[in-house]
Amino acid sequence: MTAPPRTDPFAREIAGLPLSGQPEIVELSHGDAFDLRIDPVVKRIGEATAQMLAYNGSIPGPTLKVRQGSEVIVNVANQGDLEATVHWHGVRVENRFDGTHETQAPIPIGGNFTYRLQFPDPGVYWYQPHIREDRAREMGLYGNILVVPTDGEYWAPVDRELLLTLDDLLLEDGQIAPFNARFGEVLRLYLTNTANTRVFHIGLHGAQMKLVGGDRGRCEREEFVDEVVLAPSERAVVDVLFDKPGRITLEHRDSERCYALAAITVSEDWAVPSLAPQFEFPRASADMAAERQRIGPFLAAAPDKTLAFAIGATGAENRAIGWRFQVGDRVKLRLVNEMDSNHPFHIHGAGRFLILARDGQAEANLVWKDTVLVRTGQTVDLLLDVTDPGLWMAHRHGRTTRQH
Predict the structure, then answer these.
(1) Strand partners, 63
(2) Are 29 and 70 in contact (CB under 8 A)?
(3) Where does 82-148 show beta strands of DSSP type E?
């Protein structure tokens, strides 16, 4: 039975609402259709019980697992408490299905909208509202998309894969459910920061971590790391080797304290066959090495466009900034953060970009991205590869931007 439309845009009544469930992994083949529903649910947060919003009854929503190059249809029904869209963050979709107020009319309460999605790039992506996203995400509306590469050797082999969404709710509600691993096992973690403002510093106390990918696929070089820094909307792909038995803690480390996000118990049973020897040798990406050669002329070149994050703008601001590019262009963008806070900057589906340099220092490890953290006082140069026509948004969290 279809729930009646809600008239209170910030309803908090919980009587009769279902408890939020566990997210499912939904595997979709080329041409499949999938129904995605926005509904109010009840979730326990610590000792409290609160009304929240969910995709298909779970927070996070179901993970959509698709193959690179496939196309699927997603039918969205909005039974929530305010207008909605669904934005497919990082996915290069047809412009009319980008899920913003620029590309579609909002889905009214009780309304429906059908999205046709293509997945040209491997990697981990996510979906969310793009109307009142500050509130809607905090209320539980987010979910992952895993695009499996057509090249079976794109990623190094692992024993298991796990997708984790990182949000402030994790810090308030305790931990991810504990899980077990075997001595010598290699686990791939797909990490997504769905928080509105928090930058996560993710580490594993008691295991080896290797960064293998970012927002939109694999890195130029795999590298061993102590922690991974993720700004809101950024993703990372990390391989983990459990090289000794015992208790391992997945942690968020900020300047004030360390938050335990998940407990992992590593048994003394040795994983057979073991992938540990392959883990110890970081791989390099031939396609990203080729990009390293192609970006050479852009490193010393002047930027084509400059965007400053500032208070008291003097140039064109926000929606008045009307950049025009052609499909096939490679555009050097310079981002200058003149404010007293860090800002993640996201470019919608017009294309993808590489980070060329931060404060004049060339980026050491290239990876295709759609979101970049620009720290206070920092200047970041990007190379935007324009691939898809349409009117696309580029935005960040916070105040005014201006154009030079």
Answers:
(1) 25
(2) yes
(3) 87-89, 112-118, 123-128, 143-148
208 contacts 243 by C-beta, under 8 angstroms: yes
Measured distance CA(236)–CA(144) in Å, rounded: 13
Enter the tokens of residue 215: 């927002």
Please return the burial class of 345, using the count of CB atoms within 10 Å of its CB with bins 0-12, 13-18 and 19+.
buried
Stronger pLDDT, 46 or 23, i.e. the higher one: 23
User: Tens of pLDDT along 214-233?
Assistant: 999 999 999 999 999 999 99
From the DSSP assignment, how many helices (H) and strands (E) are in the chain?
5, 28
Low-confidence winner among 298-307, 341-350, 393-402 (lowest mean pLDDT): 393-402
Q: Distance between terminal CA atoms of the chain?
A: 54
> Amino acid letter at 259?
Y
Same domain for 299 and 187: no
Listed residue (399, 403, 388) closest to 305, CA to CA: 403
Answer yes or no: do 166 and 124 share one domain: no
pLDDT in tens, 307-326: 988 775 555 555 667 789 99
Instruction: Report pLDDT digits (tens) over 81-135.
Output: 889 999 999 999 999 999 998 899 999 999 999 999 999 999 999 999 998 777 8
Question: Does residue 343 surpass a pLDDT of 70?
Answer: yes
Measured distance CA(397)–CA(271) in Å, rounded: 44
Please report which helix (H) or strand (E) contains residue 296, including its range. helix 296-299
Identify the three-state secondary structure at position 308: strand
Of 87, 113, 148, the residue at which a domain comes to its end is 148
Sheet with 200-205, strands from edge to edge, namely 179-183, 258-270, 246-253, 200-205, 227-230
Q: Please tell me the total count of domains within the chain.
A: 3
Report in angstroms the alpha-carbon separations of 26 from 23, 33, 34, 166, 403: 9, 11, 9, 20, 42
Per the domain annotation, does 391 fall within a domain?
yes
Residue 401 pLDDT greater than 60, yes or no: no
